[in-house]
Amino acid sequence: MRRLVPALLILLGLFAAACGSDSDSSGTTTDDGAVTVTTAETTTTTTAVSAPGSSGDDPGTFAGTPSAIVSLNPSATEMLFAIGAGEQVMAVDNFSYYPPEAPVIEDLSAFDPNIEAIADLEPDLVVLPDAGIVDQLDGLGINSLVLPASVTIDDTYTQIEQLGAVTGRVGDAAQLVADMQADIAAAVDGFAAPATPPTYYHELDDTLFSVTSDTFIGEVYALFGLENVADAVNDDTTYPQLTEEFLLAADPDLIFLADTVCCGQTADTLAARPGWDALTAVTAGTVIELDDDVASRWGPRIVEFVDAIAAALAQIPAPA
């Protein structure tokens, strides 16, 4: 099952690219039609979710604070617990491995949601990665909130604020965002970017799916001044599947493996691939193993991802 996580990320990323989003630093408003949250500078908050009888243009207003939330979005699950709303979560999908106390129900799938299983739980809010079953939930009188894959780190902050508004934890969400911003800034400020940007390849799985710089993952690497070899691929997706020929020709200075758990990839298994032992990253010892979940989920643990990149780069000798 863990092997499906990279595929889920790619699926959600493609959905987000198709829908598009719009956010700014002062507001928390998205135009995907599934949720609109506007937070004033005061403590007054207006939150709109897809409520029974509402439309995409007028999603409706959630009355009260949900106390029986079902999350079919692993990143949203992490956000909910990070803002202190874990006690309001009654069930999460089978990809929500973190935090450990999240109430996983194996039959709940973000890939193929079972509307009957969800209805049997009698939730007062369902958090989703896409709008696929919103109409069905609406027909059953169940509120829903769609949080698609973040395209930028700021999108992640927006979603945390949205969940804070919905769950009545605006202050906790604002504090989490502020802490994340400070921690990321500290990690980046402590790094001295080289004069010539090193090139890198980020591996999502062992079928060579990767990311471009137009993703929240790519944005993390850009914070450190790294140059993404996948940006040279022009196939209209932010999650391209590369070829061995392309990667061997690109010869990246750094390789980051975000498929160590799902696919059992290591620096050794990568070096054993035909022709890969001659790559600069292999010969220089700059193949970096990452935790799949930390590196692939937008949410509070983006800070851990940034720290992991900073730590890895600090161990790489400067060029002579």
Strand/helix succession? HEEEEHEHEHEHHEHEHEHHEHH
Decide which structural class fits the backbone: alpha/beta
The poorly predicted ranges are 12-48, 53-60
Helix content: 25-40%
Mean pLDDT across residues: 83
Strand arrangement across the biggest beta sheet:
5-4-6-7
Form type:
globular
CATH topology of the largest domain: Rossmann fold
Question: What is the compact description of this entry?
Answer:
With 320 residues, the protein is α/β, with parallel strands linked by helices. The protein has twelve helices and eleven strands. The relative contact order is 0.14.
Task: Outline the structure in words.
This protein has 320 residues and is an alpha/beta fold. The chain has 2 domains: 2-181, Nitrogenase molybdenum iron protein domain (Rossmann fold, 3-Layer(aba) Sandwich); 192-314, Nitrogenase molybdenum iron protein domain (Rossmann fold). Helices cover 35% and strands 12% of the residues. It has 12 helices and 11 strands. Strands 5-4-6-7 form a 4-stranded parallel beta sheet. β1 and β2 form a beta hairpin. α5 (153-167) packs antiparallel against α6 and α6 packs parallel to α12 (302-314). The chain is globular, with a radius of gyration of 20 Å.
List the helices and strands and how they pair.
Blueprint: H1 5-19, E1 28-29, E2 36-39, E3 45-48, E4 69-71, H2 74-82, E5 89-92, H3 115-120, E6 125-128, H4 134-139, E7 144-146, H5 153-167, H6 170-189, E8 199-203, H7 216-223, E9 227-228, H8 244-250, E10 254-257, H9 267-271, H10 280-283, E11 287-289, H11 292-296, H12 302-314
Parallel strand pairs: 4-5, 4-6, 6-7, 8-9, 8-10, 10-11
Antiparallel strand pairs: 1-2, 2-3
